[in-house]
């Protein structure tokens, strides 16, 4: 049986994992981020994704992070937990861990194999669907997984696996893929949230996307984009696009620096071997913030 349904509409920020300078997990900052997100009215939060440095965490750290986030959310917003792993049994175990500690939903990706097989991908998701009673966000992000799923495979999973409750659509070209999915989901419709740092956000929303599940450090901008009429949405997108583009560079260092500047984490530390923000990028970030946000106090919810 599936747990209480989640309305996968709007904005589900993917949170970075905050670390102290010694690389230990900063639980206080994690709770601070969650409380801020709930206060500004996001639809939910997502943790332990690729940009949450999940692959650099131990199982014990994952367990304690889930407990911290669920406690900080306090039932005000759903908590989606990334449980992807290269092995099906391990994915199920991580999903059980998340479910046992109060997760509202799971986010799961396919994994690259030496001999690609869509039948094996379906089997992987079917096992999680059958063994865990939580809604599943099907993440389709070839950029991080190196797996390209056909439209037919995604539609089959939506039709045949009832716990698939949302598609996190990040396969390129993303606006066209959103439109194709919206047209083809005739037997069963599930919401589509997009990612990629909202780089193609205006066009994805115009194609029918239901919102965002991504790590952009200003989710209030994405909330405004989702709610706006098309003409206003274009102006908002054009205004914030330089910041979206700059933040969207590879790695998590720039995003973590922004979360630190917003007062949401005490350190922008990236776990090794990940790279820290460079001195030049730090200067350029300050410049783009001044140009886009001018005198706004970014430690508070910014006015759009």
Your description of this structure?
The protein has 304 residues and is an alpha/beta fold. The protein contains twelve helices and eight strands. It has one domain: TIM Barrel, CATH 3.20.20. The protein has helices at 27-40, 59-73, 88-100, 118-131, 142-145, 151-160, 174-184, 201-206, 219-227, 230-247, 253-261, 279-293, and strands spanning 10-11, 45-47, 79-82, 105-108, 136-140, 164-169, 192-194, 211-212. It has an eight-stranded parallel beta sheet with strand order 1-8-7-6-5-4-3-2. Strand 4 (105-108), helix 4 and strand 5 form a beta-alpha-beta unit. Helix 3 runs parallel beside helix 4 and helix 9 runs antiparallel to helix 10. The termini are far apart.
User: What percent of residues adopt helix (DSSP H or I)?
Assistant: 40-55%
What is the name of the CATH architecture? Alpha-Beta Barrel
What is the CA-atom radius of gyration, in angstroms? 18 Å
The assigned structural class equals: alpha/beta
The count of β-strands is: 8
Distance from N terminus to C terminus (CA atoms, Å) equals 41 Å
Q: Please provide the ordered H/E string of secondary-structure elements.
A: EHEHEHEHEHHEHEHEHHHH
Q: Output the CATH topology.
A: TIM Barrel
The major sheet is characterized as: 8 strands, parallel
Proportion in β-strands = 5-15%
CATH top-level class: Alpha Beta
CATH superfamily: Aldolase class I
Instruction: Count every helix, treating DSSP H or I runs of 4 or more residues as helices.
Output: 12
Low-confidence stretches: none
Mean pLDDT: 96
The coarse overall form would be globular
Number of domains: 1
């Amino acid at each position: 049986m599936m747990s209480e349904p989640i309305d996968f509409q709007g904005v589900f920020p993917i949170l970075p994992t905050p670390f102290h300078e010694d690389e230990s997990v900063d639980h206080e900052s994690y709770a601070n981020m969650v409380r801020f997100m709930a206060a500004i009215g996001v639809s939910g939060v997502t943790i332990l994704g690729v940009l949450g440095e999940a692959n650099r965490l131990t199982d014990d750290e994952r367990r304690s992070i889930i407990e911290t986030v669920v406690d900080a959310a306090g039932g005000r917003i759903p908590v989606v937990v990334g449980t992807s792993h290269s092995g099906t049994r391990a994915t199920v175990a991580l999903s059980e861990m998340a479910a046992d500690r109060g997760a509202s939903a799971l986010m799961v990706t396919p994994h690259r194999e030496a001999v690609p097989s869509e039948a094996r991908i379906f089997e992987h998701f079917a096992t999680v669907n059958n063994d865990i009673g939580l809604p599943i966000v099907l993440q389709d992000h070839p950029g991080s997984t190196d797996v390209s799923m056909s439209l037919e495979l995604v539609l089959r999973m939506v039709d045949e696996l009832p716990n698939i409750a949302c598609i996190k659509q990040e396969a390129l070209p993303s606006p066209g893929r959103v439109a194709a999915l919206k047209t083809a989901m005739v037997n069963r419709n599930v919401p589509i949230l997009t990612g990629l740092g909202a780089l193609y956000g205006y066009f994805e929303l115009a194609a029918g996307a239901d919102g965002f599940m991504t790590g952009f450090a200003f989710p209030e901008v994405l909330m405004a984009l989702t709610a706006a009429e098309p003409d206003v949405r274009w102006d908002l997108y054009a205004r914030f696009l330089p910041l979206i583009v700059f933040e969207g560079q590879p790695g998590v260092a720039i995003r973590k620096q922004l979360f630190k500047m917003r007062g949401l984490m005490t350190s922008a530390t990236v776990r090794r071997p990940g790279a820290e923000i460079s001195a030049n990028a730090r200067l350029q970030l300050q410049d783009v913030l001044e140009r886009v946000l001018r005198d706004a106090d970014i430690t508070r919810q910014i006015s759009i």
